[in-house]
Amino acid sequence: MAHPSQLGFQDAASPVMEELLHFHDHTLMIVFLISTLVLYIIVAMVTTKLTDKLILDSQVIEIIWTLLPAMILILIALPSLRILYLMDEINDPHLTIKAMGHQWYWSYEYTDYEDLGFDSYMIPTQDLAPGQFRLLETDHRMVVPLNSPTRILISADDVLHSWAVPSLGIKMDAVPGRLNQTAFITSRPGVFFGQCSEICGANHSFMPIVVEAVPLEHFENWSSMMLQDT
Amino acid sequence: MSFQEGERGWTVMAGEEGAGQEKGFKLLGILDVQRTPCARDAILHGAGGSVAAGMLFFLSTSRVRRSFDVGFAGFMLTTLGSWFYCRMNNAKLRVQQRVIQEGIRNKVVYEGTSLDPTNRPRADAPSGPS
Q1: Domains in chain A and their CATH numbers?
Q2: Which one of A19, A57, A114, B17 has the largest count of C-beta atoms within 10 Å of its C-beta?
Q3: What does this protein need as cofactor (chain A) (predicted)?
Q4: Contacts with A, B 15-44, CB within 8 Å
């Protein structure tokens, strides 16, 4: 999860997010170099004693500052497009989960084998156990098996919502009357937090998402336990 | 942050955050040199290349201002070169890591079966009717 005053990304929990982190580092280095160059040019322009009031054009510099940005943009675009297509690859999911956005909670349905469905409400601050995270914990988590490609179908019951989990690199709008699909693989066990990312009313900030990645055996035990409870 | 086993499985508990976590140093406020892989090496190589290029130019021409320009150009080129070289090597290592992980996973699944890639046919086994 995010820590207070965090500016950068959270650690990646899926291969796609790892790729996004690497791409971000690559682009940030380019941005840093361009910023340094601009800073240097500003200092050089301000401190120079040279002046030429009669200069009208300069073909060389025009060519340089056309070709150089074009090359930089290609350098950024190629890895970007690679990741874009990587995110759209069909990866034969082992499990399909439906996530429905409501005002103001999420509900999850695991209907591949049995009819398992439950709601996921935020735990109010006054009911938190010591060590739990304020505004992030929910009463029921979306549990997924580790290292298994999982498809998630996202929709909404009433107004627009958005299902987002930053450490998995996922954000997908939940639109009433529309089914949006995305897929992910959790590459390490853990608990990953997210929050609703589309304004949906008074309690928009109080409908978090919690994904728990566990080994398959634990996932099977959990789903049996949930089926018995319902 | 620590994981503790609770009623509903593993729970993330807020622990002693920051113990062992250094505050990253950001160049120009944007590039976290300590946490970004290859960044520290690239900047250090760039600084070295800049000093070397600037000094060499100055020693050969005695032009101060132009030496700074050459030094800066050296910084840009050396940083970029070092960055891409390191990132390329990192990317190759990551691919190898994934292949190895996949192999370990498959080994557990396929060991002892006919799909085991390490299964070699025995030389003394009869291949046809005797």
Answers
A1: 15-88 (1.10.287.90), 95-229 (2.60.40.420)
A2: A19
A3: Cu cation
A4: 15, 17, 24, 27-28, 30-32, 35-39, 42
